[in-house]
Amino acid sequence: MPSTSPGNDTPSDFVQILPGAPTTSLQTLSTFSFRHKRYIAYFSGRQLNFLTSPTILVQALTFPDPPIAIASEPHTGKVAVASKKDVWVLEPHTEGWTKVWWVKTLFLVRQDAGDEAKCLSWGSAGEVLVGGSKLLCLFSTLPSSRTSSPADETAGAENLEERRMLWSKDVSSAVQHAAFSPSAELIATCGVYDRLVKIWRRLSFEHGLFDYTYIPHPGTVTHLEWRPLDTQSGSPSESGMTGRYEDDPEILYTIATDGLLRIWRTGGLHDLDMLLLYTTVDLNSAMPNSPSLIANEDASPQNKAARYAITIPSEQFCDAVTAAIGLPTEKISHSLEHLKETASKEPDVAITLDGHGRMSAWGVQSIGHKRRPETPTGWSKRAFHIAHAEGLPMRMEDGTNARFEAWFEDAMLNVLVHHFGGAVQWWSGDVESFFSPSAAGGDRVRELAWWGGHSSGPISTLLGASEGRDILSCDNCGNVLSLTAATTGPHERSRYTLEGRILDLAVFADVNDRGGHFAALLHSPSDPCELEVVLRHRGGKVLGRLPYVLEPENDGATWSLSASGNSEKTVIVALSSNGRGSGCTLNTTQPAVLHLMQFSLPAPESGNGILHTAAVLDADHVDKVGLVCVDKTGALLLYHMDIDDRGTLDPALIATFESVVPNPSILAASNEFAAVASSTGDELAIVNLRDGYVEHRHATGGQIRHIVPAPKHHLVAIGYDTEVQILAQGRYEHHGDMPAWILLKRISIAGMGLTITALTWLGDGSVALAAGTCIFISSGHVPMQELHKDVQEAIDAKLESWKSHELTSLSHRLKKPLPVWHPIRHGHWELASSLLHNLVHKLKFWSEGDDLHPLLDVPAEHVYGSERAPIAGTLDQDLADELMQQLEEKDLPEVSQTEQERLKRVVQAMAYCSTHVSALDNGALRYLFNWKLGILHMKAALALPTGQPNGVLLPNTPEVPIMHWREIAFAHHSSTQQPLLDILIAHYDDRITWPIARRLGLFAWLSDRYALEQIFDSLAQSAYRSSSPPDPINASLFFLAMHKKPALLALWRIATWHREQRATMAFLRRDFGIAGNKTAAKKNAYALMGKKRFDYAAAFFLLAEDAASATSVLASQCEDTMLAIAVARLYAGDGSALLRKLVEDRVMPQASKDGDRWAMSWCHSILLQQDEAAEALVMPLEGVVRRWEQDDPGTMALYAAVRKGEGSEWEYEAVLRAARVLRRMGLWLLALEMVARWEFKTPRVMRPLPTREIEGTNGVGQVNGIAEAPSMLDAFADDASTGTKAAPSMLDAFEPPTPTTAAAPVVEKTAREAKAAELLKKMKVKKEAAQPAAMNEKKPEPTQFKEPDANSLLDSFGF
User: Fold this and answer.
1) DSSP letter at 1168?
2) What are the boundaries of the region Disordered (predicted)?
3) CA distance 734 to 730
4) Which of 306, 416, 1020, 1223 to pair with 1201, CA 20 to 30 A apart?
5) Are 1101 and 1116 in contact (CB under 8 A)?
6) Which CA distances in Å does 133 have to 118, 130, 254?
């Protein structure tokens, strides 16, 4: 049975299982042993369940019609299942020693279509007896019986082999009981209300020849069963002998309405009667002080208290007593001595129950043995008392029937009780306590399992209460079940049926009933144009009905129901997928309806229709309703609704985010995030609802069926066909070793033959899932060994003695603040140096297992804030080596092994950069550190597993990391570019090639034109010498970009070996100021493009003075935008029209599409637009897929360096975004420092804050009007009186200035127009001043690059 879900095919362990309510039938349940393991099979509706323990479901099979009877063949594992019309035979299949499943192999065909099957029984050698309403039929399932029981030529519906009956006998009335004796010589049958049990004795095993007799009873026979033979002696028929031995008599138990257990025994070979009455046990009088003794003697048997009986063969009882005697004990047990004496008589045991907690056990001696002549007949047949108990927890409801199955496992007695009211109970107790003469009733047995639930059809909806373990479920037939899955055992609270189709469920707390809840059920009555919300208490009582008439355009829409409230008010919202809905507010204490509401969401401006809608409610803010919608393009639309005193709703669009998943099939939302699945269900995206970040996106291995966020926790359950994955929200990390959403647990039902149809969270963090008629409850804990290694190391699992962790606590631990030694990048060089100094000193006296303070015992104000402690010293190589040695010997807490290896590389990079700190400013230092760190990462990735710690690097592998636009932007604004360039050139031994320059982004961040020309000249020479013999073609683009055609001509002059020398030299000698020569150069360029020689074609475009075409070819066909930038800067200069066109047409659109603030800021900077460069770092990104990296807190550091005297109107929101990202990165104190110490500049244009933040909040503590998790940022209070005493900060004014007059919009518009005119004027002046200087500046003749003197670095700093 292959699985369609990702992961393995091993089912998970569950804490509770509810396979479904058993069908009301005498043969609903069967238990048998196969391969030394006990199996329990029972059917619920059309589903047959195989279980081995209270929490292990092996398999579930579905049948076209509800089965009514099941019988198992001992020792072979075959199972016969019968519905009213059909009979199947199931055979076990095995794989290895543990995996077993059953497959339908035979279909038993009955001749009379009007004959309805009633009961089943297995005979000898694979025979199946079917008792029906008209016939008693016998089938053979053995392969050798195909001749006598031929297969039908017409294949069955399931392509099963068909067998026809060996013989059939007409019966006068419907058969209620039919059972083979263990030897298969006798058959006992009985009708529904018969007082006679018919005994059929076989005269031939080959033909249907019988003689028979009747066993009379004074009342209706309610139960009959054969005593199994001793398993040690075996069956006589197994040896091929059909005769019955007198030593092995067969015993029949019957119970009638007179309350007597009758024991019938076969006689000798020469006896006239087939069965003789051996003895009786009065089940009524066997229980003194029972209500039946108080009853009137003339009362009819129907009015007496019910009696239930369990029979145990002497062999099983004695084996259990022997096992109990073998158990180690330190004191003498009187109960055990009593059992020894009882077992010495080898009695068969009869246990009688009254269903009210009373139990009495009686023994009957020598039932299955040959009668000893010297033993008095009367005394040997008389039953003797074994034990009596009061207060037994094994109880039955009055007026309900029940059937029992009992067996021993070593010294443990197991009893299955099939309640005809719709439940199966599994009780267990040790034989010593159960049959003790003095043990209390509650100590004798304990309940192992309660199996109930649905039986009418598959479960369609499942919902757990926010508190406790209450579950509300409904099936396809409209049946609703309310149950409590308590840790002590589940039990049913109420059951009811609604007319029509149930669409969704919702629950909310009942303040008057601790732990109780109300249920709101959205269903569609008989009228398809109407909906109705029914309010019920968990006990089933109807509290109210709220009708809702559908609009015509709502046809085909799906509906969902949400509810939330507090001790005063509750809000219920019924929402359609297309954005229409209704709601009501309730007085929770009554409960009574306060207001009825209807609303319709406005259509999106994009014109794309809404596909799915989810309501987000919060018990702390009942009057605020959030709606999350997704349209066809995958865009998320956030609406906010306030419920006023009149109960009206007015939806307002507050934000729009992209989810990167077009045409989503599923949408689920919580207070903080929304999760969507693609149209095919094979892709998942999780979006942060505060800032719109796509935090998680990955392709799944199966089709997503369900997405359920956990209330009040940062967890989400993703359901597939046979598996559920639990994801927890983690931290933001640049390196990405651990994603923002981490897989914590897998829950699988693979191999069971079921498909998950519903999924929900319980109040304690457990997960409940429904499949077929089953409800599986998975623990809210995850075993330690199932966690990923990095997760275990990050939470210090190796230092803890716990074998499992709670999912809810794990989700919080994964987001807690990071220790100061975590290798996360934050850009504070001095702070990092100081912390590493402290870490070295701490590790000297620290060993694994000891506590290590997250701040290294340094006060928080000394680490972050205005009172930051001075640096202890410079991080030199000696200190770094000492720290590296300690990190090799000790594992730091709260970091994984991967993160500790990264910390080592960070220490190495900082030690390298410490020698250049005095020569570089902050921007250049950032670039140098990330460059060195990238080299170390590359070396670690290229290291081979040779057994050495670091491995061996591949030969001739250049370590050139690709520098991100982030580092390029910082280096571009650095004032120490030349020292940085010297360091890079010296590292690569003055052998800079274009691939190295492109990866380093040299021509994007270098500002000095002379340095650019020197580097480009060096690249030209290296390109010329890149082949042997040297080829001028490789250097053509470089020389022509620098307007050095004579130098290129000189190279061609000495290239006598080149076949293109003569033609090229003749062409280069032309005057390309003439239009005809330009045209010829362009023709050559196009010809070269046709030959895929794009870089050489770009050189000819430069020769034709068509630099725009050259840069276009380089950026598009060559896909080398960095080379196009270099050519544009060298050929035309910064600020030129050529560079502007390239940047605006190529670089800036791609940067805007990617939301890359670093690249957009660089584009404006290279175009000499400093105000726009600063604005790009803080302005909101619209129409792009948002990622948290776009709002990297480092952008605020660059913004502070780039901005001039005036600030940006978006600065306020940018600071808040950066603080939220820092908090998600685990840098809580840095987030606190940012909001507390940031100095705002006066914005160029003041604007009010967006309306997306709810009144009374600071923009951090709430998410679209919905409360966010508590944060360090929530404590900052508003202060309206800022004045002009100091620079404004986050603490001074959280609220924007509000206009006091109606003319405020006009003033703002005038200010914007004035500012725009001023910016245009500045841009024009800068362009006119910069372009001629770049074009007319005289530079010395190009020479070969010469290595700078070693003292030049010191000379530039005045040493």
Assistant:
1) T
2) 1325-1359
3) 13
4) 1223
5) no
6) 7, 10, 21
